[in-house]
Amino acid sequence: MEEILIEVKGLKKGYKKRKTKEWVQAVNDVNFTVKRGEILGLLGPNGAGKTTTIKMICGLIVPDEGEVVINGITMQKNRLKGLEHISAVLEGNRNLYWRLTARENLEYFAGNRGNSRKEKASEIEELLHEFKLKQKENELVSNLSRGMQQKLALAVALLADSDVILLDEPTLGLDIETGYEVRQLLKKISEAGKTIIISTHDMPVVQDLCERTVIINDGKVIADEKVEELMNLFETSAYVLTLGNELTEQQQKELDVKFPMNELLDGMKLTITLEQDNDIYDLMDLLKKENTIIEKIDRTTINFEEVFMNLIQEEKNHAIHSIN
Ligand SMILES: Nc1ncnc2c1ncn2[C@@H]1O[C@H](COP(=O)(O)OP(=O)(O)OP(=O)(O)O)[C@@H](O)[C@H]1O
């Protein structure tokens, strides 16, 4: 049986906004598990609660309720012991010393977990080469580009030999080339059998790396599925209709209410995701009512970004329905 390495149980965290004194329930009963060797994508719109969740997993933030168990150790009871299993790369690369050089950072962190510098010397050399940091090894971190800093932060995380690596937005703000490079490095890290949780908005990261995603919205988990299953789910319900004439304003309005997951290209190509297969008949009625000609109906392929947007949209609709 596959071993569960991380258990996130009933996590809750709220904040009082300093300025407005308004209460924000950043994380509201989040539960999920991660198996050893799994790469989990933690997704959600801005402000959904991803960073707060990651910080609770590594013990940087104390939850109001709930707990995180890593390899049998409850972080909230025994953080230091738990931290022996975790490396985290948080936003702003806070796991680096900005006044040390790239190499000094690697040497410092190598020594940090009880290894001698000698023991880690060849690994440091390898990492400097593999992460293309060798030329800049003697630069202060504060003088490195954001991409270089990010790569160094990953190298430092790797050096710790932890079972679990937590990554908060590892490709944020990187140019396309460096983003690609970081993605390749992450792939290698994952192939080395590490258990990884990545919070990201970067869909290529999800498609390239993650087997499973937990999607958070308003502090709650709204999906916890294998990426492939989510894709299949939406693939079978996504259609492209080629229309022979333009929709009336009234039709467009009705469409947005009944089938909010729609997109009209050039006034004639309607891409639509239906929640249930039977919805196709309602859609036909809506179109026929105003004598819209349907020239062609195709099932469409869908990318993960669309899957993600659809899930968030569905959740919004449910929230609206449950208020009404
Ligand atoms: N220290 C804090 N004080 C007050 N509110 C906070 C604090 N940290 C987070 N929040 C609020 O909690 C909510 C969740 O924030 P969090 O950073 O966890 O979301 P996120 O999903 O990581 O978003 P993003 O993708 O924008 O980083 C937001 O509304 C945020 O404004």
Describe this structure in words.
- InterPro entries: AAA+_ATPase, ABC_transporter-like_ATP-bd, ABC_transporter_ATP-binding.
- It holds the Pfam family ABC_tran.
- Keywords: ATP-binding, Nucleotide-binding, Transport.
- Belongs to the ABC transporter superfamily.
- This is ABC transporter ATP-binding protein.
- The structure is a single chain.
- By secondary structure, the protein is α/β, with parallel strands linked by helices.
- It has three domains: 1-85 and 162-179 and 188-226, Rossmann fold (3-Layer(aba) Sandwich); 95-160, no CATH class; 236-323, Alpha-L RNA-binding motif (Alpha-Beta Plaits, 2-Layer Sandwich), CATH 3.30.70.1560.
- Helices cover 39% and strands 27% of the residues.
- It has eleven helices and 14 strands.
- The strands form three sheets. A six-stranded mixed beta sheet has the order 6-7-8-3-9-10, with helices on both faces. It has a four-stranded antiparallel beta sheet with strand order 2-1-4-5. Strands 12-13-11-14 form a four-stranded antiparallel beta sheet, with no helix packed on it.
- Strand 7, helix 6 (176-191) and strand 8 form a beta-alpha-beta unit.
- Helix 3 crosses helix 4 and helix 5 runs parallel beside helix 6.
- It is elongated and about 80 Å long.
- The protein starts with a strand and ends with a helix.
- The mean pLDDT is 88.
